[in-house]
Write a structure and sequence with these properties.
7-stranded mixed β-sheet; alpha/beta; homodimer; 20 strands; Rossmann fold; 488 residues; 17 helices
Chain lengths: 488, 488
């Protein structure tokens, strides 16, 4: 990292100025950024327009020199040539950080490449932490949001433990923001790096890993590593006390990784890349959905109310508890691919489970693994079974497939499960169908930070993610003599 | 098929009797079935209780002989021994069909197996179409619903073109009903086959394929074929004018297919099975999600208002039209795995596309495939681009990745796309994020039967499914000299 650049100013500014505000077009990016920060966010924001005046009641300053303070950050939303002029002004006024929204740089080749080189030189010479150009900016709740799309059009995730860094602005606000919100996954800060002329994924990994106190998990969507910096990225990841996850786009034949020479050292294809990432303790999901599943589990477990305590998954030994035989079958089918295994129950254990169940259900239930409690199940059966399974030490995680359709399952069941788990600290991953009328059950589990998923596959992926994370944490501890607790 | 059994009575009965109604327990399965059909469905339903009386205002008959009509179907929800007695009564009163809800038959082994053999003998000797035992019954809207769970607890899919047959009742009502409803996929009839002592998947394939006029797509969830009948199933599928899809559970080492000798002729493992199924023109999704994607597309295209007309996908040549570069990259990455290919545009075509776009967007847009229109896109750009791409013959399908976040995209965009496509008949599959506030855009596409998905992967799976279906239809036509139109 360029130690002289202060990335904290990008993500935790006290004050911010915005340039490129149209007084006529209410959809101009600069105007949207000014107004959303003025009305929705906590940063002190100042709009600049050469002619002053106001937009929607918010007064504008004629120049940087008119501002009452030197802002921590200048958001520049003008054409490429004017952008260079304003970066020079950042240098002149000693503004430590800038976000450049507009394009017209390296991505258009030729002149644009030269322009970007000049931009980079000014930034480095003057120690300005420049994000972009050609980016969608920063969302750092509750402080600032420089995403130049109207807030009412986009979906914002809640505050949480995940630093989210994306090379594509569209992927950030759609594939991540929408699905984070759906799943209740929270971000500490979300960053669109655009052309990454100055601030790149490696600098961000270092910042979020070492400095930012709110971040516990760092996730990247990349279409390739920054030229010449892959090695540094990997080494930083290897010693990071946060969980580091990368997801790559553009990985097929036509994809960037295969074609860009700068990643040749990693082998240039996904298989080799994937192997390399593992050696540096970087988690690599196989699909976007698996990435989201991982982040949901890790985010939940990063909060103080962690229902699993110190319990982790070392061997992948699970018990499947279902109220539908078919669901148990579908779940079992997936275990092997995800490095999990259904424990075998002894005859004694099967008899004990038989005794726990109500007299109607016990006759038709199946006590193999998957356990099928059948539609004759009562609340107390589920509660008792979870308590029983929690006490079996070789079971590292319970996969609970809960269909609330049987008429004797009450809306109290979520709370009853939460109570057992909170006492037992046994990892449990639950499946409950996404049906609005069962929201009360889902909520009572989520209030206790018990992860709920709406597909069987995600349940299996989540348990597998816990296992992978356990392994990396143990390896890091062994190799780097960490403190037991994250020291940030 | 046992030609003497009248399966139509199971799915299109005029009258139905229910036995096994508790007057004390308002959650008893028989009572739930009686009342939901009395109050919600169109079939004439009669409840039987040895002592008569009434439940919740609905009068009960003391015996079958007291009923004013001979019912088409008898639903039996009593213990196993009594069940045999009532099946004998079906024979005596010449009731042509029966659904047996309760268990205690082959699934418990020993005595149960003998009991099931006896049941089967009585049914066959007397030509009674028996469904079950140990099943959840039939949902055939708007006529009948014998699912013994309270309707307010479950989620019912709309009426549509898919006959849905499941070996697991839990999988039927949860994995299918919930997700069908979410995606707007409709069922003609849904059937839980349970132990399939008499009526099995092969008989149902024949019935839905040859007889049922509402069915155009037949989907099976199976944990193995009925003993000795796999060959007949495959041969029926090969000549079916409907699209046949199978999805198997229990396919891993511990799974049923690998362990049950009756499927040994198919090789006993998924890879061999999968190859065999293809040769019989049976579609086989790789995941439950892909199954749902297939059914959504096929269901939509089974309606009279089919926006793609006779256009099909033969070679898998697609154009990706996106407003986000990252989405285009992620989509491209998936094409190869699904047998699809992004067409190459000529320089002339790229210039023509440049001319179509608004002056701001054209400068920053990318006209390779994927096409990235960028956030500067206007409604008319999307409309014009779809019209333009529709006229390029070698493009078989447009994959439209529409993020409605750019402020100039209006809520009219869905209607404008629908209008172009309905005129052009070019297959189009759309991605729109699942965000409630964009429901108006989603609805205007769905009203014109244009399939909308909420993940990029499903868009790719849907185009791939159309390609596979085209191939099978062409092969069937070639081999069996079908009429051009489905002749049911």
């Amino acid at each position: 990292m360029n130690d002289n650049m202060d990335l904290e100013k990008l993500f935790r500014p006290k004050s911010m100025a915005v340039i490129g505000i149209s007084r006529k077009n209410n959809l101009s990016p600069g105007r949207i950024i000014l107004l959303k920060n003025e009305f929705e966010m906590n940063v002190d924001v100042y709009g600049i327009h050469p002619e002053g005046g106001n937009v929607e009641g918010v007064g504008l300053y004629k120049s940087l020199s008119d501002l009452p303070v030197t802002p921590d950050i200048l958001v520049i939303a003008v054409g490429p040539d004017d952008t260079i002029g304003y970066i020079r002004e950042c240098a002149e006024y000693k503004i430590p950080a800038s976000i450049i929204i507009g394009g017209g740089f390296a991505e258009i080749g030729g002149e644009g490449k030269k322009r970007q080189a000049l931009l980079k030189k000014i930034a480095i010479d003057n120690e300005i932490a420049v994000l972009g150009p050609n980016c969608i900016g920063v969302y750092s709740p509750p402080l600032l949001d420089t995403i130049f799309l109207p807030t009412e059009r986009i979906t914002r995730p809640p505050k949480g433990s995940v630093a989210l860094i994306s090379q594509s602005g569209g992927v950030l606000i759609d594939q991540f923001f929408v699905k984070f919100k759906e799943r209740g996954v929270g971000v500490s800060t979300a960053v669109s790096i655009g052309n990454r002329a100055v601030v790149d994924e490696t600098m961000l990994l270092e910042y979020f890993s070492k400095v930012d106190p709110d971040t516990r998990n760092i996730a990247f969507y990349l279409e390739g590593f920054q030229e010449g910096k892959a090695r540094e990225f990997l080494n930083l990841a290897k010693v990071s006390e946060d969980t580091v996850i990368t997801y790559f786009g553009g990985i097929t034949k036509q994809g960037k990784i295969a074609t860009e020479s700068h990643t040749a050292s990693l082998g240039g294809n996904l298989k080799v890349l994937s192997g390399a990432l593992k050696q540096y303790y970087i988690l690599q999901p196989h699909s976007e959905r698996e990435l989201l599943t991982m982040l949901k589990v890790f985010d939940v477990l990063s909060y103080k109310k962690n229902p699993f305590g110190k319990n982790t998954i070392t061997f992948g030994e699970v018990a499947i508890l279902s109220v539908s035989g078919g669901h148990g079958v579908l779940c079992s089918d997936m275990l092997q691919d995800y490095g999990l295994n259904a424990v075998w129950f002894t005859e004694e254990e099967k008899e004990e489970m038989y005794e726990i169940l109500n007299p109607v259900a016990r006759k038709i239930a199946s006590f193999n693994n998957p356990i099928d409690l059948t539609g004759s199940v009562l609340d107390k059966d589920i509660e008792n079974m979870i308590r029983y399974l929690s006490d079996i030490e070789r079971i590292e995680c319970i996969l609970l497939l809960l269909l609330p359709y049987p008429p004797n399952i009450s809306f109290q069941i979520g709370r009853r499960i939460s109570n057992v788990i909170s006492n037992k600290n046994k990892p449990i991953i639950t499946f409950i169908p996404y049906v609005e009328k069962y929201q009360m059950i889902i909520e009572s589990l989520e209030l206790s930070n018990i992860p709920v998923f709406h597909s069987i596959k995600e349940v299996v992926q989540a348990a597998s993610a816990l296992k992978d994370r356990t392994r990396f944490i143990n390896l890091k501890k062994k190799n780097y003599f960490w403190e037991t607790e994250n020291t940030k």
